[in-house]
Fold:
Amino acid sequence: MERIDAIVVGAGFSGLYMLHRLREEGLSTRVFELGDDVGGVWYWNRYPGAKCDIESVYYNYTFSPELLQEWTWENRYPDQPAILKYLNHVADRFDLRRDIQFKTRVTSAHYDQKSKRWLVQTDDGKTVSAKYFISGVGCLSSSNTPKFKGLDSFQGECFHTGSWPHEPVDFKGKRVGVIGTGSSGIQAIPVIAKQAQHLYVFQRTPQYTIPAGNRPYDEAFIRDTKANYGAIKQQMLQSWSGTPKKPPERSALDATEQERRSAYEAVWQDGGQLLSAFKDLMTNLDANATAGQFIRDKIGEIVRDPAVAKALTPSYVYGTKRPVLDTGYYETFNRDNVTLVDVKSAPVVEITANGLRTTEGDYEFDALVFATGYDVVTGPLFRLDVRGKEGVALKDKWANGSSIQTYLGIATSGFPNFFMITGPQSPALLSNNAISIEQHVEWITDCIRYLREHKLESIESNVEAEQAWSKHCKEVSDATLFSQGESYWTGANIEGKHMTFPVYVAGVGVYRGICDKVQANGYEGFSLTPYPANANAEAVQA
Ligand code: NA7
Structure:
């Protein structure tokens, strides 16, 4: 059996940087990637309108000053082709492809207590043994297609936003049905509406969304950003979200009605998240209600048909589902070729050969798009069939997601030398992922270097440390509104899924400080096991 130092799963932002850093440390490392090229979520998410809603100049690696200087983003929000181009550039620049095995699915990763190594099986029938097993699968790589009755009977073309074909898809002259109005649906719907003969939007929960205000960067902004990236990076590292935006200082309740409206209007006009307007929108229901009402009023102003406007108007607490940015979403429902269908009041009964049936009627179309999201966070991890000591499966340890326990969102007890990049109970899902990924990769790299320098065979989080961390995460999120709603953050998007709220919401800067302190204190909360006295040099090295 082949023996290497480290196995990383996934060649997206996480896997690429992890590979780069481990190779620099001199570790033999292999990345297994299901796709036939790099990019991770940006390799699969090729649906029309796919964009990141973190601004381009912050949604990139910051570890290499040269890379920062040589790459220039064109638009405020990067679209999928731009991000994929960037990741391809990174892969080439750092010569990463030679250690990535594409078109390979990891089918299991089991910890062998005797050899104290991870045995990783892949769908090519091989098993590779590694000292360290690192997940770079991210939070959003396991797409969710609801198990509608008759799913296979549809005779037209069928797509999922999370695994879009590589060939161009042409909806011109076609009747299209889109199920789902999360971030993906909201990005895709305006673009598809412009192509299709007719578009049916099947909406279960109306959404709050804000204009993104996407636009080309001007040269001066790019020049200043590049010149000042050192300072900008420091702000990003210490921030709540991983971007350098200054946090709001004022309470929405201290402002007058007119001041609030003009603050919200300024965000609406410039584009970006409304949560940036006041400091207490996610901690105080009354403050929050002012933001929700602002968007509800906007829908009423934009959408001409009052019945459609009403159906598009959300009532849930703003921000308890992921806030969305859009380009012309509400306006799309003024088009004659777009029909909104409320599948909350009249749910989908079945998919038919020519479309779908709700409890109120039949809809016919030529193409069906599932914008129904992901089995978030636990989905991709459980799919790896990770088993730790005594053969315990991660899925069982976390009771299918309803009792996630991690230490710092990076490790979990019973699974020595297993690291999760952007794991649950870290800030990942609510932060600028590029920055969160870099932090985790660097923490893990430092940790592995420490183990090797101190001749330590394994690191494993202590049960007490992870219990305390999980409790702390819950206390922090319970003090906010983030965890109080029905969202993919709690698994509510998938029938039967109930997940522990998987985000540490104290912010990127606070979290970084805690992680750094754990490291500075010799990995407090972890058990470090030395190699046995009789271990040979080869065992210690590999
Ligand atoms: P989301 O945000 O989970 O959205 C999925 C959408 O699909 C949402 O509107 C769901 O309604 C809807 N959905 C899910 N299941 C059904 C069923 N059975 N019937 C009708 N409608 C359904 O996923 P996205 O891909 O849009 O965004 C995920 C992240 O990817 C995003 O935050 C970015 O980070 C990128 P619901 O709201 O659950 O009622």
In short: The chain is about 30% helix and 15% strand.
